[in-house]
């Protein structure tokens, strides 16, 4: 272990905890996108004091962007004494709703038993704080480095990342020659390197019917019953078939090594009236949203055909069955090669800090690496950060203080390797 770097991070331990607490206290809940601007401005002020040049960039025109809820991102850059490669740490600042079941205030940043509690502590404000501390410690120890360091706090990752990394990637912020290596401090455990993620296809299926009075349903055609036939076919045919598909990708947890599909939501019938009572109508529309996660071995065309073939068959089998299907989002599976520079550098850091080989994993769900690869065409990208993925989005979410300190050391060592050109 580089003792100078280690000491520089250890002396910042209290600062790391305080910074994490400060970040948690911004209730950056998405949806709707609260407190993005003040959180981004706070990060900008912090990094300016460390010598970074900062930009606040609004994802104008992206989903959810309004004057009340602007999609405000922060990008900070520190250029070294001489030209070289650029390492970028990207963290999302948005968090999901706190929900019920907390034993502490979810937006207070409570410190207890060596942990910092709060919504976003694990996913991923602890990782953001660790990356800032790592960069500041590196700048203190190696002020004459060649290259550049960037740190970003971006929005909307929890809802697809379109106002954050996707928007910035479309503007060239995640492409060469500006950036060479990207580390995303998502919570995948401090001794793991996440190489990528499974693919995803979100789609909305609508079954059609004919409206009639609820007391005489025989005069109409119930779209909800048609959707019931769709769900029945999925249960009997599609779900068992998906469960048989396995991948060579090192996906965690074990259950995610199979293809999966989640029924995200279902809506049918007319809206309630002002009294809260339902309308006495036969529903003429029912909409179902599916979340299909697929593997590197699967082709997206076949993934879609598995669903549409069932719908097409029902169209022949059921009288008056009509459907529409609409793509919402599709993302291909990603897996960065183990010998990529950023993987090699972070692996070296893990060996030095923990005295063991890293575990290489694939995330069950997507994160902003998808936009960096798809739009920015930059593939030297991984997720590495403190925290336990299973705690994300749950009550009493926390991040361990020691985990953040050790992860910051790994990140700082990764910087040293990548910017020294010693790979």
Automatic annotation (TrEMBL):
Presence of the UniProt keyword Flavoprotein in the record: no
Required co-factors: Zn(2+); Co(2+)
EC number: 3.5.1.18
All residue ranges annotated as the Peptidase M20 dimerisation domain in the record: 196-313
Entry keywords, A to Z: Cobalt, Hydrolase, Metal-binding, Zinc
Record GO terms (molecular function): metal ion binding; succinyl-diaminopimelate desuccinylase activity
Class of the enzyme per the UniProt entry, highest EC level: hydrolase
InterPro entries xref list: ArgE/DapE (IPR010182), Bact_exopeptidase_dim_dom (IPR036264), Peptidase_M20 (IPR002933), Peptidase_M20_dimer (IPR011650), Peptidase_M20A (IPR050072)
Protein family membership: Belongs to the peptidase M20A family.
Protein name: Succinyl-diaminopimelate desuccinylase
Protein source organism: Phyllobacterium myrsinacearum
